[in-house]
Amino acid sequence: MIPSHRHLNIGALVFDGMDQIDLTGPFEVFSRLPNTSCRLYGITSRSVRDVRGLRLTPDAALAEAPPLDVLHVPGGFGQEALMTDETVLAWLREQAAGAHHVFSVCTGALLCGAAGLLRGRRATTHWSCQHLLPFYGAMPVDARVVVDGNWVFAAGVTAGMDGALRLASMLRGEAAAQAIQLYMAYAPEPPFDCGTPETAPAAILATARRASAEITAQRKRTAIRIAAALGIRVPVPDRPTHLA
Q1: How far out from the chain centre does Cα 27 lie?
Q2: pTM of the predicted model, to two decimals?
Q3: pLDDT score of 243 more than 80
Q4: Catalytic residues
Q5: pLDDT (tens digit per residue) in 220-237
Q6: How many Cβ atoms sit within 10 Å of the Cβ of residue 36?
Q7: CA separation (Å) from 206 to 35, 190, 200, 209, 243?
Q8: Lower CB count within 10 Å: N or C terminus of the chain?
Q9: pLDDT of 171-223, one tens digit each?
Q10: Are 40 and 97 in contact (CB under 8 A)?
Q11: Is the peptide bond between 26 and the residue preceding it cis, with omega within 30 degrees of 0?
Q12: Could you tell me how far CA 118 lies from the centroid of its own chain?
């Protein structure tokens, strides 16, 4: 836990095609931590649109970001366009090296992997691409939140709030995190038990797989190229059983 008198700088990467809830869910948590600033950083300071069209405006460009105490890396379909963007990858490496914690949500984990930051780490990401984590040297864990040292990984989309609350407790203590959860009235009661591949009806899961097949195939092609560049040999099989 970090002493409450020490100010925390939390910074999140924003980019075109991101999934806004990977950002805004955790932002709801982090912005309520005492003595903490939360800022958004883009490739430039121009606004971006998330994968569904929501406009988001960075506070500053990557080059203007101070050393961050917490680096927050969201995901979304737009992550794929940044996988070989050395400006972004170098920024992730630099910030992760000095950060107290790194927080990855959804396919933000793949961006971290492309930056060479996942070797030997236990990690999770969206269920559709957990099988790609070994291409980046990571050990995939089929869990909603995974903590590996000073890294916190949240799986798909809404898991970002769970991961943010876990990280909030690590930063400012359980009481602070619990107070935030209470204020948010965060006590999920989903109307359907359909939030994982294991619980979704077969027809719904098949439709979801078809809908994501193209981006998943592209992500695998990218992962193979990056694994080769990083010198990572991928074990076989490369798909978790629940995705077979």
Answers
A1: 13
A2: 0.95
A3: no
A4: 106
A5: 999 999 999 999 998 655
A6: 21
A7: 46, 21, 9, 5, 10
A8: C
A9: 999 999 999 999 999 999 999 999 999 999 999 999 999 999 999 999 999 99
A10: no
A11: no
A12: 12
Separation between Cα atoms, residue 43 and residue 87, nearest integer Å: 8
**CA gap 55, 23 in Å, rounded:** 12
DSSP one-letter string for 41-104: EESSSS-EE-TTS-EE--SEEGGGPPPPSEEEE--SGGGGGGTT-HHHHHHHHHHHHH-SEEEE
Determine what percent of the chain falls in helix, strand and coil, rounding each to the nearest 5: 45, 15, 40
- For residue 239, name the pLDDT band (cuts at 50, 70, 90): low
Which helix (H) or strand (E) segment is 36 a member of? strand 36-42
Q: Name the packing angle between helices 174-184 and 159-172 (round to 10°).
A: 140
Q: Which domains does the chain have, with CATH numbers?
A: 8-239 (3.40.50.880)
> Average of pLDDT values for 132-146?
97
- Helix H segments across the chain? 20-30, 86-98, 108-114, 159-172, 174-184, 202-230
Residue 69 tokens read as 């105490």
Sign, CA torsion 148/151/154/155: negative
Backbone angles phi, psi at 147, to 5 degrees: -110, 125
Contact 201, 194 (CB under 8 A): yes
Q: Which 3 state secondary structure label does DSSP give 152?
A: strand
Mean pLDDT of the chain: 95
Which residue in this structure is represented by tokens 């098949």? Answer: 206
